[in-house]
Design a protein that fits this description.
With 366 residues, the chain is of the alpha/beta class. It folds into 2 domains: 175 residues, Glycogen Phosphorylase B (Rossmann fold, 3-Layer(aba) Sandwich); 171 residues, Glycogen Phosphorylase B (Rossmann fold). The chain contains 14 helices and 13 strands. It starts with a strand and ends with a helix. The structure holds uridine-diphosphate-N-acetylglucosamine. Uridine-diphosphate-N-acetylglucosamine binds next to α1, α10 and α11. Its main location: membrane.
Length: 366
Amino acid sequence: MKVMLSGGGTGGHIYPALALADIIKEKEDDAEFLYVGSFRGVEKNIVPKTGMPFKQLHVQGFKRSLSMDNVKTVWLFLKAVKQAKKMIRDFQPDVVVGTGGYVSGAVLKAAQKLHVPTVIHEQNSVAGVTNKFLAKNATKIGIAFPDAQAFFPKEKTELIGNPRAQEVAKMQSDFSWTTYGLSDDKKTLLIFGGSQGAPAINLATLAAIPAFNERDYQVVLVAGPKRIDHFMDLLKEQGKTLSDHVKVLPYIENMPAVMQKATVLVSRAGATSIAELTALGLPAILVPSPFVTGDHQSKNAKSLVDAGAALAIKEPDLDGNSLVKAADALLQNDAQAAAMKGQSKQVGITDAGDRFYALIKSVIKN
Ligand SMILES: CC(=O)N[C@H]1[C@@H](OP(=O)(O)OP(=O)(O)OC[C@H]2O[C@@H](n3ccc(=O)[nH]c3=O)[C@H](O)[C@@H]2O)O[C@H](CO)[C@@H](O)[C@@H]1O
């Protein structure tokens, strides 16, 4: 099987594509892949490290206001479609899979024009702009939340979950907290704000540091590669220090392995993070980002809160006190954490990768 993958911009679009590739490789060891990403998104840092062949296109997003930049966006898009067509003719994929982000718009549009089967994956409960644009001509559409069905033609849409969930659920983690100078015998609160870190979560954690320094559980904040320096500057300015059991990191490469060893998670309500934490049944405190299309993170979070699988704190209500209160509620109350774990597992779709693979197989012409 020859599969062209495209998804870009943020980790939430990239990791599902990579998880799908791993599942295909497990089933067909002669499978071939080509990943097409953008020059701007984080895929340029993530994909080459996997050893997968990687090509890039220049694309950019639309501005919401009237702007000359939008003329450039259209011009870049048309140019990218042309270049993508050449990549498709050279690689001759059996199927082209798009997991969201502007670059996947150009790549799948090119495939649709060349009559190559296309499958799109929507990770959120609210469909993204690119997937809505591609849906009409897509061969099949895989969704991760039942609510997303409303955005797509019913006859070609299937609830498959997020393949990253299966990857995380199956992984045998040999990660040890000693990697970060912590103990494997203590409970650990892992805090991260999506793949890029979140200022509001970082600031609340900063305010909570004196309390966390006093707790008997460990705390790890992943501040984000571009945000950690600012966090450390503020920490110094405020005259605060980190105790031995509180750590701040820029990014965690092997997040699925690390998540397996966490006790409670504080996270944005990005689709991939949710797929991962429900696959593990990890009790979570979700802080939905208010800055995303259609407020989809609040809807993602609500579906978990309604199921008793997570707590949520709205960003305006998030501060040091509310963060510590929610963390204590789960880390100092084993019964509540255990109940949430059970509910979270109920929500997770841990065979999402197998379902995605079946969907891909169903569109390939023999
Ligand atoms: C701000 C924004 O537009 N966010 C969107 C983006 O999420 P974004 O990419 O920020 O977040 P997601 O929660 O979907 O995914 C984050 C991914 O990054 C990984 N990770 C994170 C931190 C780290 O240190 N290491 C690491 O590997 C997580 O394990 C996860 O796999 O795409 C998602 C999927 O369409 C959407 O639901 C989000 O609303």
